[in-house]
Every structure is written in structure tokens, then in C-alpha cells.
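User: Please predict the structure of the protein below. I'd like the answer in C-alpha cell form so I can feed it into my own downstream comparison script.

Assistant: Understood. Taking the following sequence of 364 residues as input:
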Amino acid sequence: MTVLVEGGRRELRDTLSTILDTFAADVDPARGIFIKPNVVFPVRPSSGEITSPLLVRILVSLLRERHQGVDIVLGEGVAASCDPGENFRVSGFAELARELDVPLLDLHQAERVAVPWQFGTLKLPRVAFERTYINLPILKPSNACVISGALKNQKGLLSPGMKKQFHRLGLHEQIAALNAVVRPALTIMDCSRFFGRDAIIAGNNCGEIDATACRLLGIDEPEHVQLSRSAQVFAEGYAVVGDPSALKPTSAVPAVAEFKRLGRLRLWSNPKACTMCRYIFRDIQRNFFRRQNYLAAAKLLVYAVRGAEVIIGSDPQWRKEYDTVICIGECTRRVAEEGGYIHIPGCPPTPGDLYRHLPWAPKP
């Protein structure tokens, strides 16, 4: 197997052309092409959290130049409880799909096939198996997995319920098992966030790509990468070619903190918490002027002054510095009932749920 590293020294079009040349044997245009970017949240490309529409635009153009009449489909399964239409609109992918005249699939609504895997049977989008699958992750930090890259981007193939289940059962092991049964023909990972503009790592093996990124970042392989080795996602050996010496980290991978502070709120991290429970506070901050958001924020401000522990996910771990504990989501219901703590129901809760169920003031 081969991993190709491009340091961003050339134009993006030239880089993508080299990648398609290198992995030409892996891309069968006769089957049609399925391209899966990362559009997990309704954010703009400049956020560094989603795949660049420009990269997709150039890739589609190159594929059409090389393979006249090739049938191309774009598709993504957004984070649980996100609105696919909003994600595609805000990210620019809805407009891009119209301009390119390619279908844009909400993978949550796509036809699924049952696939045997380590834990029984998993239902995955048929399009990922019937077509040549090109995976387009963006390398970014992850509170749950240290980094989100080629391996973790495949989580977008899952149904919303299964995404939540992955977190409840243990995200690292589930990601490794998923990658043992779904193997994209080609993965092109945008590494600009850590290595500068248009830095890319590409290959035909997701595990090898993430392992190469870890080595170039100078970090230990996260658990899901290590487990992918045990799950035989990796090949026996692989070569790194291209321009790896050009990839010098421009920023470090942030350490996964036990908790984040918002005033005197301590927001405890938990790998078993699903994405949308984790991001409820960011949603309130980013969309402050929506009525329920600013009402929820007003209540949170009281707790941010007085102090409270905020916990999420099944089997949460925290140390109690403040007497007030706020339990977020259905996974924490048992903890709230047993401890007599504040509970915000929902899977995931919305800012409206937070406003309705959070008392105006902590217990004295």
C-alpha cells in the first residue's frame, strides 16, 4: 500500500491530479463515483471543520476530464440532530452540487444494506459499496478521539441512531470495526489546519493515512488508530511517498482536557458523549440571537457566576468542586436521579430544553 504526502507547494489542481495518477488503478469510473466529504456541522468552509467545496469542485472537474460521462454522486450523513438541508446550505455544498449538476445525498435517507461486522450486522448506505468510494476527510482535533481524520470520517455513513450507539458502546473500538468492513478506494485528507494551506495526505488505506498524520504531527496514535491495526485495517506494510519533509506542523494538536471552563461552569469531556450533546453550548453561543438560545444563555450565566459541574454521556467521570451538577441528555438520567442533580432531558437536548428544565438559580 502507498501513502502520498503533498506539502502544499503546488497548486491544488496539480496536487489532486498527481493523486489521481498515483491511485489510478484504485478508481474504477465504470462503477460510478461516490464522494463523501465531511460536512458534519452547519458551518462555513473557513471554519476548518468541514471539507472544502473548492477541493470537491476541482476533484469532480479532474474526474470528468479523465473519464468522459462518469456518473458522480456526493453524499454525507450529518451529525445526529443536525438538519442536513441547513448543513449543505451553510457549508456551500448545496450550491456546489447545483453548479456541478451532481446529486447531493442525505445519507440518513439513503437506501441501506446489511453488512456483517464484529458486533453483528450493520446497515450502511448501498452507494458506498456499489460505486467507487472516495473519502474526503479533513484532519482536525477531536475531544473524543484526539484527532478526526480518515478513519473517523466514515462515521458519517451511519444512521443517526447508530452514531449515538457508537458513542455509548465506546467510540474507538467501533470506529476500528467499521473501517474493517468499509474500505474506500481512495482517501484524500485535507491537512491544512495543521500543516498549512493545501497540505494533503492521500492513499487507499484509511488507517495508514491517519498513522502517517500522527507521525508527522509528532503525536502517539490515538486508541482508534491502534485498534484499527488489531482489526487488520492496515496492510502488511506501506510506503510513504511524495513530499513528507515539507509537512511541518504549523499548530499543535490540543491536549484533550478533562473539562472546559465557561466562567465557573466546568464542562466535563467524555468520549461516550455524542457530538450534539457536546456542542449544545457552542450552538447557544453561535446562534445567540435566537430566542431560546439567549434565554438559555441567560440562565447559564447565573450558573457561570455561581459555579456548576456539567456532565454528558454514559458513564461520566468528574470531580465535584461545585455543589451544583447539571446532567445533559438521556445518557445521564440515571446519574441525575441517583444523585438528585439537575437533569436536562433530550437526545440530544436543544437550547429550548435547557431553558425549560434548568432552574433560574442553583440551589444555595
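That's the full C-alpha cell string. The chain has a mean pLDDT of 91.
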